[in-house]
Design goal:
Low-confidence stretches: none
Order of helices and strands: EEEEEEE
Number of helices: 0
Mean pLDDT: 92
Structural class: mainly beta
Radius of gyration: 12 Å
Strand order of the largest sheet: 1-2-3-7
Helix content: under 10%
Length: about 70
């Protein structure tokens, strides 16, 4: 699990993207978190199936949070 700071350019604010990586060699990564107007991503694992990113609780591997789709 990693978070990335996304700079949208001169006309929009920063956003944070959270990416979940699989332990399996052939599995792709999944974008599970996307939040606009943030500059950091704080990741806290609650258990092996649940993570919080900046306070948003997400069940992995199938859950996600995207501010554009509440």
């Amino acid at each position: 699990m990693k978070t990335y700071l996304n700079n949208g350019g001169a006309t929009v604010n920063y956003a944070v993207l959270g990416v979940l990586f699989s332990n399996e060699k052939n599995d792709d990564s999944k974008h599970i978190y996307w939040q606009y107007e943030e500059t950091a991503g704080e990741i806290n694992w609650i258990d092996e199936d649940t993570v919080t990113i900046n306070g948003q609780k997400i069940n992995v591997p199938d859950g996600k949070y995207d501010y554009r789709h509440p």
